[in-house]
Design goal:
This protein has 254 residues and is of the alpha/beta class. The chain is built from ten helices and ten strands. α3 packs across α4, α3 packs parallel to α5 and α4 packs across α5. The longest helix has 16 residues. The two termini are 35 Å apart. The structure holds adenosine-5'-triphosphate and magnesium ion.
Length: 254
């Protein structure tokens, strides 16, 4: 579905991405994790067309999309949410979702099809009780769910989620996890940037780890969690001051 080949991005002297390659397959949840500043959001911007890479290619379904505008990619089925929420604050939760339906790859609106679609999505993301509320009066967690609903409303084939669980309570996070699994089950390629490692390990089929703009590990969640480079990248300088045990490695992780 999505293929990223050797993508590099520099901001002045800062190399945010240095030759990143990855794939996000239809029917799977793919995780992209890594410390703050690793380049995760920059990669999403490259995939969605908000950031032109200095080098490298992005393709979807075998078609190169590296130079296409964001709205053109959206029409091809690329949907996303933002790390910093980007909702229409003065509109209700339902209206935000209707905007997504109208912007998306929807069919003509005969007999209130769009209204019904909006109700289905509100139910799916668990927002029926706050559907009438103005988006800027909602908690961060509920606002994130509105954004997810709006992205779903565009009927994406590839869905990129930038820290969707940030601000969600435990029950909302559980609902989110089940929803992501269900979306993959419907054939969507889900690419998930997430700091909640427990959620990533629970829902992802494949995980990539980005550190300082480089993929340092990739594999299934269990493999990735056990990788010493990943533990080092996450645990950082505290671990670096303690040399690893030469024979067993028993002092690392756990
Ligand atoms: N528009 C920009 N101009 C200059 N530097 C930028 C810009 N966007 C990102 N960067 C830099 O690129 C690097 C990667 O940033 P990015 O936001 O992609 O990281 P991230 O993995 O999403 O981090 P976080 O987990 O904090 O969201 C950082 O060093 C950041 O400061
Ligand atoms: Mg980010």
């Amino acid at each position: 579905m999505l293929r990223v080949d050797e993508v590099s991005v520099s901001f002045g002297g800062v190399q945010a991405l240095g030759g990143v390659s990855l794939e996000s397959r239809a029917g799977a949840v793919t995780g992209l994790i890594g410390p703050n500043g690793a380049g995760k959001t920059t990669l999403f911007n490259v995939v969605t067309g908000f950031q032109r890479p200095n080098r490298g290619q992005v393709s979807m379904d075998g078609r190169e999309i590296t130079a296409l505008r964001p709205h053109t990619r959206a029409r091809l089925g690329v949907g996303r949410t933002f790390q910093r929420l980007e909702l229409f604050g003065s509109l209700s939760a339902r209206e935000n979702i209707l905007v997504g339906i109208e912007a998306g790859r929807g069919r003509p609106d005969h007999g209130g099809v769009r209204r019904r679609q909006a109700e289905e999505i509100l139910e799916r993301v668990g927002l029926q009780t706050v559907a009438e509320r103005q988006a800027n009066t909602l908690s961060t967690g509920k606002a994130r769910l509105v954004e997810l609903g709006r992205a779903l409303a565009t009927r994406p084939k590839l869905l990129l989620l930038d820290e969707p669980s940030s601000g969600l309570d435990q029950s909302e996070t559980d609902t989110l996890g089940k929803l992501l699994t269900a979306l993959a089950g419907e054939g969507i390629a889900v690419l998930l940037v997430e700091h909640d490692v427990e959620l990533v390990m629970r829902v992802c089929d494949q995980v990539y780890v980005l550190d300082f703009g480089q993929i340092i590990a990739a594999g299934n969640p269990v493999e990735v969690q056990a990788d010493p480079r990943v533990q080092l990248a996450y645990l950082g300088a505290d671990v670096g001051t303690e040399p690893p045990a030469p024979d067993s490695g028993a002092g690392v992780g756990g």
